[in-house]
Automatic annotation (TrEMBL):
<feature type="transmembrane region" description="Helical">
    <location>
        <begin position="180"/>
        <end position="200"/>
    </location>
</feature>
<dbReference type="Pfam" id="PF00892">
    <property type="entry name" value="EamA"/>
</dbReference>
<feature type="transmembrane region" description="Helical">
    <location>
        <begin position="212"/>
        <end position="233"/>
    </location>
</feature>
<dbReference type="InterPro" id="IPR037185">
    <property type="entry name" value="EmrE-like"/>
</dbReference>
<feature type="domain" description="EamA">
    <location>
        <begin position="5"/>
        <end position="135"/>
    </location>
</feature>
<feature type="transmembrane region" description="Helical">
    <location>
        <begin position="145"/>
        <end position="168"/>
    </location>
</feature>
<feature type="transmembrane region" description="Helical">
    <location>
        <begin position="90"/>
        <end position="113"/>
    </location>
</feature>
<protein>
    <submittedName>
        <fullName>Putative permease</fullName>
    </submittedName>
</protein>
<keyword id="KW-0472">Membrane</keyword>
<dbReference type="GO" id="GO:0016020">
    <property type="term" value="C:membrane"/>
</dbReference>
<keyword id="KW-0812">Transmembrane</keyword>
<dbReference type="InterPro" id="IPR050638">
    <property type="entry name" value="AA-Vitamin_Transporters"/>
</dbReference>
<dbReference type="InterPro" id="IPR000620">
    <property type="entry name" value="EamA_dom"/>
</dbReference>
<feature type="transmembrane region" description="Helical">
    <location>
        <begin position="267"/>
        <end position="283"/>
    </location>
</feature>
<feature type="transmembrane region" description="Helical">
    <location>
        <begin position="62"/>
        <end position="84"/>
    </location>
</feature>
<feature type="transmembrane region" description="Helical">
    <location>
        <begin position="32"/>
        <end position="50"/>
    </location>
</feature>
<feature type="transmembrane region" description="Helical">
    <location>
        <begin position="245"/>
        <end position="261"/>
    </location>
</feature>
Amino acid sequence: MIVGLASLLFVLIWSTGFIVARATVPHATPELILAVRLALTTALLGGAAFHARQALPRGRRLGLHLAAGAMLHGFYLTLSWWAVNNGMPAGVMALLGSLQPLMVAAASVAFLGDRLPQRAWVGLAAAIIGVGCVLLPAIERSGTGSIAVGPAVAAVFAVLSMAGGTLIQRGSIAGDGIAISGAVQNGGGAMIAIAATLFVGDYRWDGSPMLWIGLAWSVLALSTAGLSLLVWLVRHQGPTRMSMLLLLVPPLAAVEAWLLFGERLGPVQLVGFALALGGVMLGRSTRPARDRDIAEPA
């Protein structure tokens, strides 16, 4: 029951990331928004960890937390936002992101000893096809023939980074508290975002109410609540089952964009939403078998 509610809440929160990005990017540079967002989240979760007396990880565990945060929060967000801001159609970026659960599933089988049943693979394939149907109108509007090499490479590395950061959560760091884990990992992501901001050299920030509202939601909901739920779900369900939830994010974001911005939501998208939902439910209906104890990914 608790896991089901946590899964539902995670999908609802995570789907708003598309909406927040669309609302805030016109008012500030993406890299600066992410740097401020991740730094504030680090401070907030650090305070929560201090209050809960959660000890700071040491040695190799600290390095793994920082690496996970750099990949999951830093590289994934900065590279994907940069790609979209430099010509990558948002629909194509979302479609590439939908391949992340497939990457996690394959890596879990290869490196963590998971053995996924056939219906899990079938459900995963059906959900990816459903996401493609949902995103098809957006891809057709934007086209794919004019995508530059730089944004395309950045988008691929963004998805790979998120997959890697998700897998690391199942290593030896899984025993650390959620608050201190989130603080250190957001700190790792903040360092990447700050470096990206300095590299780009654009510090546009108009201070509009929409920017501050979007930043507040990003810190409190997306980075603090959403990413904490992501880590908790990975630890309790495994990286593959958690990653399948991400396939519901683009369809739900399409519904939110329809409600908030009046974007088109046609029959093909509705069929795609149903296919994605059915595929995720099928893929998550069984737990993967394990040949051995969890092996820490390299």
